[in-house]
Amino acid sequence: MMFNRKMPQAATEAMQHAGGATPKAVVANPFIKDATTDKRIAEVPSSLASAHANWKPAGVWQGRFDLAVWLRLPQGCPVPLQLVMRYTDQRGERTVVVDTCKPGSFKSALLNGSVELTVNGAVKDMGLYLLDLPADVPLGLEEWHCQPQIKRKS
């Protein structure tokens, strides 16, 4: 199976060219209660990070991961979906954009990409999230995958 590989900024650029707005930064404000939420759709085992060829138990290391999620949207989705990977390391929580799409009236969506993580030490928690998802949009996660990329030796 082949996945379309995109740099993290490619989703934003594609959305801008399509007439969409740049995705906003996520700022948690406990005093604002609106009808959107960040929904965790998959827990990624933190052991997957340690399976990467560049993994180090201490210090800074970088690794690229291929990600994909296939969603079922029984009623479609009127707003763009933005998939991110969140992970927690010794520096705290980090968020990396994977992909963005506008499903509209379509009943399914595939979000995928290749992301580079800069990690300090061991990863304590990893997950895939959809940002700013309206609370009234039903969805089901059909499948997901996260694979560390292995660099070939020259």
Order of helices and strands: HEHEEEEEE
Strand order of the largest sheet: 1-6-3-4
Mean pLDDT figure: 81
Uncertain segments are 1-33
Q: Output the number of helix runs.
A: 2
The CATH class is identified as Mainly Beta
Would you report the number of β strands? 7
Shape: elongated
CATH topology name, in short, is Lipoxygenase-1
How many separate domains make up the residues? Answer: 1
The profile of the biggest β sheet is: 4 strands, antiparallel
**Estimated share of beta-strand residues:** over 45%
Class from helix and strand fractions: mainly beta
What's the alpha carbon Rg, rounded to whole Å? Answer: 16 Å
Helix content: under 10%
* End-to-end distance: 25 Å
User: Can you name the CATH architecture?
Assistant: Sandwich
Textual characterization of the structure:
The longest helix is centred in the first third of the chain and has 10 residues. The protein is built from 2 helices and 7 strands; from the N terminus they run αβαββββββ. It has a single domain, classed as Sandwich (Lipoxygenase-1), CATH 2.60.60. β3 and β4 form a beta hairpin. The strands form 2 sheets. Strands 1-6-3-4 form a 4-stranded antiparallel beta sheet. It has a 3-stranded antiparallel beta sheet with strand order 5-2-7, with no helix packed on it. With 154 residues, the protein is mainly β.
Write the layout of secondary structure elements.
Elements: H1 8-17, E1 36-44, H2 47-50, E2 60-72, E3 81-89, E4 92-101, E5 108-120, E6 125-134, E7 140-148
